[in-house]
Description:
By secondary structure, this protein is α/β, with parallel strands linked by helices. The protein has one domain: NAD(P)-binding Rossmann-like Domain (Rossmann fold, 3-Layer(aba) Sandwich). The protein has helices spanning 12-23, 40-53, 67-81, 104-132, 144-147, 153-173, 204-209, 214-218, 220-225, 237-247, 267-284, and strands spanning 3-6, 27-32, 56-61, 86-89, 95-96, 135-140, 178-185, 199-200, 257-260. The strands form 2 sheets. Strands 3-2-1-4-6-7-9 form a 7-stranded parallel sheet, sandwiched between helices. A two-stranded parallel sheet has the order 5-8. α1 crosses α10 (237-247). Residues 301-307 have low confidence and may be disordered.
Amino acid sequence: MSAILITGAATGIGNTTARRLAADGHTVHAGMRDPARDDAEHARELLDHARREGGDVRVVELDVTAQGSADAAVASILGDTGELDVVIHNAGHLYVGYVEAFTAEDITHLFDVNAVGAHRVNRAALPHLRERGRGTLLYVSSTIGVTTPPFLGPYVASKVAFDALAVTTAYETNPFGVETSIVMPGAITKGTRHFSNATRAGDTRVAEAYAALDPLVARNEEATASLVVPGVDPGPVGVAEEISRILALPFGEKPFRSVVDFTDSGVDEVNEVARRVRERFVTRMGFGELLRPSRTRPTTSRKEARP
């Protein structure tokens, strides 16, 4: 069994995944931004559930927008259990509205949470994983970077950046035996607070210029829900089950990408084409060995500096 850190575990996919992985027998460190105050109820409910069900869940304070918090969280986990095997990057926030009506500062903050936050946690965790020569980075990305729906512009852009960082980081962690899996949920219209907690565009003057489109924005959530295949539960449980399945696979057999989509969007087809193009391009560059996790640690070869 593994020691696992999940970011953004207060609600939604992160919370559901924490419960599932604890039931699988893993030691789960559930990262929450403010477990002592704002997330206190979520922390208590998660811990109570673990006690009832017999799972090993430990809540850890983790604000992905602060490097010091990420460093402290990882240090706390290593001090507590001595091990960290898996990092699940799940923390994120949703913006809904007209792109122009979000200030540059608004969009910078969203990128800070949704993309740079994962990088901060990696900077805290990777020294340990590289030293051990094994581990898994699992990113909860989104199909939204392919489907690109309207009125979610800053969010779409931030998730694309998050996904690209996952791909490019994998080139550099694969040689050290650290695997990467990118799970891409489609629209999750139940069991999360994405839309209810979403940030709206703050520049009301600009937003008013787009008032003719307000009825379309108002039915965004309904329109998304209408795409769900009948008879399917579009909640976070399916994502948690897929993460559980992936983590149970042996080294080298974890999928680099996996889509959990309840809307039949065709993202799998796009992914397959993109995979072939990317792998062919990287191989032509002479870097094909960076595409798969290695069982052999790289050796350092440096020429001595001349006096």
